[in-house]
Amino acid sequence: SNNFFLLCGPCAIEGEDMALRIAENVVKITDNLKIPYVFKGSFKKANRSRIDSFTGIGNEKALKILRKVSETFDVPTVTDIHEASDAAMAAEYVDVLQIPAFLVRQTDLVVAAANTGKVVNLKKGQFMSPEAMKHAVQKVKDAGNEQAWITDRGTMFGYQDMIVDFRGIPTMRQYAPTVLDVTHSLQQPNQSIGVTGGRPDMIETIARAGIVNNVDGLFIETHFDPANAKSDGANMLHLDNLEGLLSNLVAIRKTVNSL
Amino acid sequence: SNNFFLLCGPCAIEGEDMALRIAENVVKITDNLKIPYVFKGSFKKANRSRIDSFTGIGNEKALKILRKVSETFDVPTVTDIHEASDAAMAAEYVDVLQIPAFLVRQTDLVVAAANTGKVVNLKKGQFMSPEAMKHAVQKVKDAGNEQAWITDRGTMFGYQDMIVDFRGIPTMRQYAPTVLDVTHSLQQPNQSIGVTGGRPDMIETIARAGIVNNVDGLFIETHFDPANAKSDGANMLHLDNLEGLLSNLVAIRKTVNSL
Amino acid sequence: SNNFFLLCGPCAIEGEDMALRIAENVVKITDNLKIPYVFKGSFKKANRSRIDSFTGIGNEKALKILRKVSETFDVPTVTDIHEASDAAMAAEYVDVLQIPAFLVRQTDLVVAAANTGKVVNLKKGQFMSPEAMKHAVQKVKDAGNEQAWITDRGTMFGYQDMIVDFRGIPTMRQYAPTVLDVTHSLQQPNQSIGVTGGRPDMIETIARAGIVNNVDGLFIETHFDPANAKSDGANMLHLDNLEGLLSNLVAIRKTVNSL
Amino acid sequence: SNNFFLLCGPCAIEGEDMALRIAENVVKITDNLKIPYVFKGSFKKANRSRIDSFTGIGNEKALKILRKVSETFDVPTVTDIHEASDAAMAAEYVDVLQIPAFLVRQTDLVVAAANTGKVVNLKKGQFMSPEAMKHAVQKVKDAGNEQAWITDRGTMFGYQDMIVDFRGIPTMRQYAPTVLDVTHSLQQPNQSIGVTGGRPDMIETIARAGIVNNVDGLFIETHFDPANAKSDGANMLHLDNLEGLLSNLVAIRKTVNSL
Questions:
Q1: Chain A partners of B208 at a C-beta cutoff of 8 Å?
Q2: CB distance from C55 to chain A under 8 Å?
Q3: How many domains does chain B have?
Q4: In the C/D pair of chains, how many CB contacts fall below 8 A?
Q5: Least C-beta-crowded within 10 Å: which of A105, A149, C8, D84?
Q6: What is the pLDDT of residues D174-191, one digit of tens each?
Q7: Among C124, C123, C121, C153, which Cα is nearest to C140's?
Q8: Closest Cα partner for A180 from A228, A121, A135, A252?
Q9: What's the rounded Cα separation, in Å, for the pair B79 and B41?
Q10: Does residue D192 carry a pLDDT above 90?
Q11: Containing structural domain, residue C106
């Protein structure tokens, strides 16, 4: 359909019911709009600010839910890995292995992901320039895997804010298909309570700016009850707002494709 | 036409011929595309990094050229002022008085501009948040002038780079019609030779992201010979590329208007 | 005495009594510590965020108070100017003309100040690199005035914070004697209420880091009642704390001079 | 001796001879100046920008060299770990386990380090506020280990520069003993060639500003031949310059202690 693709789901796999419920909804919407869809869910959250934050329901349990989503709705899935030893394990269950932004400079991890033969989705570090992602992509290719993606999730802008540099999109698309992570880009980190804040009111603003600039994919975290999500509730999109958002974006992309 | 408007012209008025030549070209393009057009030109450049930079051809001479452009093509004009005493003088010749980004905190200057009854175009300081522009707009309104505009020209991002924060557009549109200054937003200041650099290859990227987010106007500096322009050549749009850019933007805005 | 010098006083001249009271106290302290002292006070505040902020008691009235302070205590004085036309007027009353950070790129203003033959204290713009101050100093020298100073007052670090880059001190000392403005460097601008906040608890931290790195002078705003000062109360030093701070700094500088 | 302590050594353990040679030199200098000394060396470099950068001579081989340095000169040692599984292994050989800045949010890694009972040196992420380090320290303490240190290695300042925020030192000292990593703080990342640059000319500036503000320790990478060091040569201190630097710092600290 020449459309953008979508990585979308909850931040963390909190359980089977919630995962299936979210997937079902997103599948319906994306089928309708002819948007290629990849279900996203983290099987563990290894990088919380505070030790008492939610970290997961158990690795294997969560990975099995990802597989079940894939089989139930016939969609590919993506999850993030945190140690080289996660790569082979997660590759048994999902189609895309995502390298978290903080970890994208860890060569062992990137190479372990590349060696599985799966797509490797490299998140741009908040501390990295778009140009520096060239080297991260090269590590995947040097391991013999041509399927690298880049995902931008915003750049540090003072201690408590992030900003998206849209000059980065054409820059990074020279190296690999580039995804814009809309919801994490709107995080406001380092808040005094140790829980990241956000600006979910700006989701459509950032998404439109990416789509109009030919970003290959979007990454959006969603939940039917963001206020009670076990992580990142402050910047998620409410599931009820997903269809309206995507409809607008599809119309914009159609125009862009015609230019 | 429910279209965005355009502030466009050379950085500085270098002479009558170049001003008329640029205006004639832009008028033709914008008439065709039904874009309301305001001719832009500085009558003096008061804030160069280096003292040996070009500062102008003489105030009155330049202002008279602005008037001639206005009369010849029946378009309004905009110029920037630098001291309170410039306001009344420039108001004799132009329709919009622009407050430079470095000077937008100077209350005397803003009030002097407001008192002329002309439109006051307030550039957001590179050091200011979008939210802080609320106070600048209020200064214009408190002087009894309801015609304030805001123009974003990028925000400091380290010493030698600027970034556009697109969250600022919906934020500032709450206070006043908001313009995106595409070419200055792509400056790269503080270069070691004392002349500002730029990224003109990113003009369409930044312009699209603004247009898709309902910015009210665009500000673009253009020249038929940027390499030999007397100021800001490093980030100008070549006049030959203006029509293609604007055609794309009009198509995008039409789609956005239909959502 | 091979000591650092001190620019110190209230933010704004609020009246004769408060100016004399502050000067008397600081003179006593600095005489004792053998610190060359320049009394600082603004005769108008032209760059407030909000129009209802305090702007001054009247230009001539305030300048006469500056002269009275100078004559009473036999100390030089410094004030900031905002338009070229202020330069000659202020030069009648004070010894050092200070160019505000937002205005240091305004060539007319810098040249007007230089032409008075007074010392010209150039504040580094929050948006400027240390290296870029070379050009500002050159403008003073090109006007035939060799007495330029540079003052660092912090650099933009996200919308609501400032940071001091101490690499800038040795860099800028290559161009001119360099002053560290401790209190403004601790401002936190763009706060939602339109009044700048601050971190006065960090005054000694920043001052020490400057003194140990051979900064030529310090700039400190002080008041006997910061909470009720008419401007910048949020980041001033309480007058009661000045002597203790300066004693520590003198001891540190003495050690540094001996290395 | 009430002095600051020093973590110092080469970036990477390139071999036994170079490690012993550097250690011998630093031991002599620090013994003389009564500076408690911890020998620093990385046993692997896991986070290079480019895959063809040097990553190490082999884990066990390098760790054995660290032990040999410790035994030869009777000094404690520190090395950095990158995966939870490194913790127990490295703890067999060294006294302090260091968590790299990019990895300080990885709870598994921090807890694994804490569980060894060794001192855990937490590097502040370039993307983190000083205040956010409170949560990292808490993770160590919650694991029953009271021996956490914090090390500041600079904060992102635009894509290609770093800055040290000295307000962070008193802030972080509230949570744990705080070290200033002088040489990494002067890195200039994201350079176009994929190798980090630096400003080694500013080492003494940054070190002095830390010492005068009561930082508990300093971290300095040194080499007898920085230009040929296998990593981070661009910002290392030449071993020949270490004694002069430390002598100055000891004198400054002595004065500060007497205040």
A1: 209, 212-213
A2: no
A3: 1
A4: 67
A5: D84
A6: 999 999 999 999 999 988
A7: C121
A8: A121
A9: 6
A10: no
A11: 5-258
